[in-house]
């Protein structure tokens, strides 16, 4: 059987449109009816024409025209003859680039994750970015009493900052260039915020730590200046936590990485193999299902799928939009 769907095609930079596609379910595949779809920072990079190198996550080469989208969730409506781990009616979270800006998407089962019992479907549809942020926050190595700096107040940064607080950090600092994101961070529990355009992060962090530097710095902004600032404000033997996906070459001053014995933690959940992800995702979503981390406040804008052009225009122009979602 096959299903006709509307699906987003990124024809060229800044040129996205819905096209009609026929999905044919392979024997080891399933078709999922979407509940909600999120725009990821990496989708924005694609939209702006910054294509990353091809990775195992993609079904297609990262070049134009590109069938875009990877953050969504929904209900399985069809399963292939060889699929044994899912059945029609199962609620699933997408973990793969399967052209998810669509009414329906086709997926291999290893690119899915069951929705935890009791999880709101709006949140489950953002299960991939939530799990990624939570994984980073839960594995950042934050100890009770730490001063933690989160570089970047986007979707992941806001989640990571909340996790740091819940894990017992004495002071959580969120640094960004936008006041709107910093105000939200404050509302969600950050102790101190730094607007990198107006304030000197070095001065703020040294002031908070008797000149020692932060115990943990999480890089969740993904820019050259952010990586360099993170390398400066971290204490001797501090923990540098990677989160961002930087797809373009950048120039770093890394003398301190050696000289100050900086410890590195790579917290990219989906890139530790799907088997590890299968184990970790339920644990990362548990605190969310229990309401310990506020995600709803991070959903700033909603569009109908048919308004995908407007949604991407907003994503491109308005950096204060944290998570933009599309409803089929
Ligand atoms: Zn993403």
From TrEMBL:
Name of the featured protein = L-threonine 3-dehydrogenase
Pfam families documented for this protein: ADH_N (PF08240), ADH_zinc_N (PF00107)
Keyword Oxidoreductase recorded? yes
Which keywords does this Swiss-Prot/TrEMBL entry list?
A: Metal-binding, Oxidoreductase, Zinc
Which positions fall inside the Enoyl reductase (ER) domain? 8-326
The species this protein was found in: Anaerosporomusa subterranea
- Which coenzyme or cofactor does it need? Zn(2+)
Q: What family name appears in the similarity comment?
A: Belongs to the zinc-containing alcohol dehydrogenase family.
Single GO molecular function: zinc ion binding
């Amino acid at each position: 059987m096959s299903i006709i769907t509307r699906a987003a095609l990124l024809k060229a930079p800044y040129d996205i449109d819905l096209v009609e596609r026929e999905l044919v379910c392979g024997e080891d595949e399933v078709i999922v009816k979407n509940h909600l779809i999120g725009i990821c920072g990496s989708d924005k990079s694609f939209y702006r024409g910054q294509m990353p190198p091809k990775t195992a996550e993609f079904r297609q080469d990262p070049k134009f025209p590109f069938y875009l989208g990877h953050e969504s969730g929904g209900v399985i409506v069809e399963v292939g003859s060889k699929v044994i781990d899912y059945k029609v009616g199962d609620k699933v979270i997408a973990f793969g680039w399967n052209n998810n800006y669509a009414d329906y998407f086709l997926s291999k089962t290893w690119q899915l994750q069951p929705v935890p019992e009791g999880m709101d479907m709006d949140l489950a549809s953002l299960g991939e970015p939530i799990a990624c942020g939570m994984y980073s926050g839960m594995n950042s190595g934050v100890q009770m009493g730490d001063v933690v700096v989160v570089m970047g107040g986007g979707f992941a940064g806001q989640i990571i900052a909340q996790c740091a607080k819940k894990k017992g950090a004495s002071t959580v600092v969120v640094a960004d260039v936008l006041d709107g994101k910093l105000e939200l961070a404050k509302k969600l529990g950050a102790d101190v915020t730094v607007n990198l355009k107006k304030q000197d992060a070095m001065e703020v962090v040294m002031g908070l730590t008797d000149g020692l530097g932060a115990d943990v710095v999480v890089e969740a902004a993904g820019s050259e200046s952010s990586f360099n600032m993170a390398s400066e404000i971290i204490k001797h033997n501090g923990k540098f936590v990677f989160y961002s996906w930087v797809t373009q070459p950048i120039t770093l001053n890394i003398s301190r990485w050696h000289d100050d014995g900086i410890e590195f933690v790579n917290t990219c959940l989906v890139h530790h193999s799907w088997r590890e992800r299968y184990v970790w995702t339920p644990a990362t979503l548990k605190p969310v299902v229990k309401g310990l981390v506020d995600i709803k406040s991070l959903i700033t804008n909603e569009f109908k799928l048919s308004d995908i052009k407007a949604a991407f225009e907003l994503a491109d122009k308005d950096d204060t939009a944290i998570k933009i979602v599309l409803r089929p």
